[in-house]
Amino acid sequence: MNPNLQIRRAGALLVLLSALGAAQAMAAPTGAALLPPDGARFLVNQRFDIRIEGQGSGPFSARLWVDGHRATLTSGAQGTVTTDGISSPGWAGFNLRGAHLEHKGQHTLTAELTDGSGTTTVTSHIQIIDPFFQGMGGRHRTRNIVIMLGDGMGIAHRTAARIVRYGVTAGNPNGRLEMDQFPGTGLVSTHSLNSIITDSAPGMACYSTGNHFINSQEGVYPAHVTNSFFAPRVEYMAEYLHRVKGTALGLVTTADVEDATPAANAVHTANRNNGTGVVDQYLDERKSTGLRVLLGGGRRWFLPSTTLYSSRTAGTGYPALPADVLAGWDLPATPAGQGSANRDLIADFKSAGFAYVDNSTDLKAAAAGHAPDKLLGLFGYGNMNVALDKVAKRRGILPPGASTFAVDDYKAPDQPMLDEMAEAAFHVLSRNHEGFVLMIEGAHIDKQSHLMDADRAIGETLEFDRAVGVARKWADRLGDTTVLVLADHECSGFSLIGALSLNGGIAALKNLPSDSASLDPGVVPARQNAVGTYDFAGFPSYQILNDGYPATMDIDNKMLIGFGANSDRYESWLSKPTPVIDSLLPGQFKGAGGLLGAKGYATIPELRDIDRNGFFVRGQLNGEGQAVHTAADIPVSAYSTGNRAWARFVGVQKNTDVFFKLMKAALGGDHPADNDPDDDD
Question: What is the pLDDT, as a whole number, of residue 14?
Fold first, then answer.
């Protein structure tokens, strides 16, 4: 056995990905794969699972070598059909759980999978990077890492938010967003393991693990296993730093906390939609992640299934894990209630020492004075409401065309803003003397871009930027803190195309007759003709109130947004009085007969009443009811105190590079000339 391969206490890709391993042509078994895939990168001593899998006639056996030295597998009975007992029907699987390598450089994994008809050999080349190396000229380590994740936020979202917030005079912006003022600016590619277009699960997990995963999977490699929580794991940033330094973890989001972005910092699953198991794993594996703060929506997953608006089901649960997973990852035995539909997870969090709040008033009280050691906040049954709808309730002014406040209809009338949630998280996490990892997500930049609701997407970017300001203030206060602002991907092909140039302004726009029947390309709908481009766009000027948000988005020279990755919709250019019904809600809220459907909320953008009198825009996407993610690079802005870690992020980089740059800053110190995560010399 290779002495460099350390197993802590004991211990294949899908067929479409099997080309990532080099297999002997025409050999049996078929579909053989070796994980990690070829080209994967890890830190020195970062843990990962190794898996060999394939199909064949059986019985099966397998052998594994690391750099030519035989390694011992932790599960998979040799000479059997059942092998590890967790592989999908027709598949064989062998595992080495919780492995890690001590020496930097290139390493070769080689595996043989044998059945009654022959042997297939697969090979994977992986790289180990030393984050502890200290180069010339720097020793100042980052103690706290803050990842500000504007989900779906491209450069156009940022530009639109700046124009709305500050305006432009004679070609010069009248102010800069908080994120604009960070010294380090670069670009990040956003591809996943199986596509140029990522979803949010691997989009976030690449930053938190340094590895690519396939869409919909979080912190695991794809494998043919019987349960999504059995897939081979890769250690997260939070797990690694908690294990070696004792750091704490905080997760803050305006989404349901079971959603992809927060979960892809602490949860290992091949199905991001298994919400019961996702939220259970937050609590049950908190000693591995150091979880201290969890704030967002998603109360539905924490309530016993017998409680109104609960979404817990046994089918989306987190089952008892295989013994070698528990041993290889230092996990506790299955706790009482794990995976149960009737688990009262809020009560279990409280028993584990978490203070619990469910509204803005109580959150402010919890963060005031002596903050609790641990904090759970659940401010909605599903996703939280967007900034413009929360602000409307706080102002007590209904949006034009609305008869009720959205937050009331969502049964969450007192929700905090993202900057208030960020403030509370910093109060709690700053008490941990070993430092922390904090992820703060502005989730609805993505969700409202999907729904082609430009005004709400811009409002979300404004709310997110206020939270960026909170992070910068705390970084200055705490010192030795690195703050990154970036996105997991761009959403909707968001584009600033011009401004309203109709004579009579917004009042005239509202009084235009319906253009919904204008489908002849030779007939220009009146609303399409209202788009002022080039000289006619001018400089929109929004009135910003004391709360930092526009008095209204419907102004005479309103900025107009196009969507390059759009679906069918009607466009009126007017602010929407109500949001589209959120997909991450208890079933009682959704559908025509649900609580929101009964109040006239639309289920897809095409059905918004206010837009039905607009002009019809044929989307580019067959079968899609909303806009989609794009493969465009996204901007990254970096700020650091006590060191020059921000300089690492200048330039163009892969999304997985972000992980290694952050970890080098945290473990090795600031030598920004070393800007290549593959360069350890």
Answer: 38
